[in-house]
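Recap for those who missed Tuesday's class. We walked through two folding examples back to back. For each one, the amino acid string is listed first and its predicted structure tokens come directly after. Nothing is annotated here on purpose, so try labeling regions yourself before you check the end of the notes.
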Amino acid sequence: MRSIRRSNLDVPARTIPEFIAYAKVNPGKISMGSGGIGSSPHVAGELFKMMTGVDMVHIPYRGVAPATADLLGGRIQVLFDTLPAAIQNIRAGKIRGLAVTSKKRSDALPDVPAMNEFVPGYEADSFHGISAPNGTPREIVDKLNKEINAVLADPKLKARLAELGSEVLIGTPEDYGRYLKGEIERWAKVIEFSGAKAE
């Protein structure tokens, strides 16, 4: 699932380079909302801070909905969010989508650039996966994997998810395990950088 970095319309920046320049002349004055400490919007924003050297103040909310309300109301300036949650407000012109945080542009918003076009190496995808308890018999894991992959391959489902800016990835349990391992290692560095602690 692609994520997007969006700003309220009062922020003068219309591109990522403009936003970086704006943030650097206004250190500590930009409020970056998130759905809570350690949420995907939070760590995506911390990765941006880590890679660009900008100083934004993290404002954690109890979920992304109140953060979005405050973004729309001008009480925070920026929010990293999932594309499905943000796309309707962007299409309606209520907020400005500056970049998607996936490796490439989204077909759902082709005019919105990918962050790594300006911040090389930046990538922050949100994802949903299905896991089973440790020790689940392999034949059950394989059956679940086969059935879930079949559902996700349905053209109607894929088309609807694509319309919302999501991408379907199917694979084996081993593929998913490798992906999770890589994500845990990558985001542990960002959490350490941010100094975030579990509440």
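Example two. Treat it independently of the first, because the proteins are unrelated.
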Amino acid sequence: MSGVSYEAVIGLECHVELSTATKMFCSCANVFGAPPNTQTCPVCLGHPGTLPVPNREAIARIIKIGLALDAEIAPHSVFHRKNYFYPDMPKNYQISQYDLPICVGGHLDVELADGSGTRVGITRVHMEEDTGKSTHGGGSGRIHDATYATLDFNRAGVPLVECVSEPDMRSPEEAAAYLRALRATLESLDVSDVKMEEGSLRCDANVSLRPSGTEPFGTKVEIKNMNSIRSLERALIYEIDRQTAALERGDAIVQETRHWDEDAGSTASMRSKEEAFDYRYFPEPDIPAMEPDAAWVDEIRASLPELPRARRDRYVETLGLKPEVARVLVGDRGSSALFDGAVALGADPVGAANWITQDVAALRNAGGGDGALRAEHVADVVALVATGAVSNAGAKQALEASFTSGEAVEAAVDRLGLRQVSDAGALGGLADEVLAENPDVVQKFRDGKDGVIGFLVGQLMQKAAGAANPKLAQELLRERLQG
């Protein structure tokens, strides 16, 4: 089939651990990083005679997610037992949902880097419990060459929401944009910390190829073990290339699950893809059907915050930000909150956005966190630069100090001696000295060489020990030169 062009068909299955105080069906604490097997009880370990009790807050949070994705909240949904035998699930079954999920349909509007957009359909959003964690040791970390395994059941029973998209994405870029948009939506809802590096947001991808312009889907392959948006994009690029090469050779694509190896930059076969009948689903006999009260659903709907798309539109249309800057702000809850806080304090929106997306972002990346920065720090920096009290360079120093210690920006400016001299009288005397000491440069300026003004400003700045307002210094020099 050489010469045939292929189109990728991509769908994502995203698992979201909810940040509730307790697990889904028991009262064990839902915390990350506790010593192994310290957050367990007979219920989440599946001991005989125990009964699961659904977490009301977890149900409220999945309803909130469904409403944010414009899904239908089912008036009647059912938990099932998904049976499989693997050591990370001590009951040998997982309480999940099958044919009657709590949220059905919906969509998520996705914006790409070039400003274009697409709508990705949502098939379903359902609730289940997470599994424990297996660690395979003595080899590569993969089960096939491990010499031992350790099991930590702290995660078993943590409330887990699975959001299944329609196969509406056609490129790795679209898939990455969808995952960013979903993560931003979940962040705005405050239902999960969505930290991919800690496993609270996990993503599996289904990808197939078909000849361009045709309707039937090709044979899909599932890819697992992608722990970042960059990994998702890289894995899809690799898999599309692999499937394209196989089809061009005339090979058949095998329906299977493949493991993404971050270090090798490639996928490898894990197992043949299971079908629903392999899990022997049947209704969970210990949990009645969920029939959420319509008034409760309306109450949850009324509590929804401003969602990312609406916030982005407000930033552009009302506050005058460039779309690409608004997209960056909305993509990070911390940045968006900092921006909204600074604007509420009176900061110029464009100035605040530039400081947050550039200098604050650099400090976060270097320090690995939010530091001690608050909205008032950003608002003060914007105001001090706008009034000429400090230079941009000085403002960066003060901001870094505030980021580290939390001290007021004004205090940092004074402590570090960063305040600019904007007194025309004081600087006027220094300007006179500079002109008197550099007659040859003065003559060059008057002969039409305007660029030498920079040298004269530099001389004045030296006399003022770097504290002069450069804009005012240049104005004073030009007045004298042209007078």
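Answers for example two:
Residues 6-297 form one domain.
The two ends are 80 Å apart (CA to CA).
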